[in-house]
Amino acid sequence: MRQILAVCNADFPQQDLVVRVLVGSGVRISEVCRIAVEGPEVDLPELLISSRGTAYDQAGIDTMLDRLQVRAGFRVHAHAFRHTFATVACQMGWNVERLRAAMGHADYNMLQKYVRLATERDLGCKTEWADFIHDPEKLAR
Q1: What is the reported pTM?
Q2: Mean pLDDT of all residues in 49-62
Q3: Pick from 112, 85, 82, 117: which is nearest to 96 by CA?
């Protein structure tokens, strides 16, 4: 995660935001594209707006992750962030029903793969994962 966040382009804060939302929530690309802001004076309700002034779609997010992959030097894809979210949640003690609801799974078969992976992988200190979801230094600015 540190390597991926380090190669995010500071001129395009959407990159950093997309990575943090994906790993911090476990949502699918299609769900990231639909995150919206509601309010009386909101011209574009979508949270993720490209430099062209249009909302990101799945292809745009895929392209963004492809660019990060080239800069990072290893595979970067949204579904891996989903797996990471589920693995960390399991290791942090989330119960299976809570994780099933958060992941949007209708049954437990797919969820069992995530639970199995959580027992096979060590992702390091769990308390540090909050830093990947939000950056306290950026919030202070």
Answers
A1: 0.80
A2: 91
A3: 112
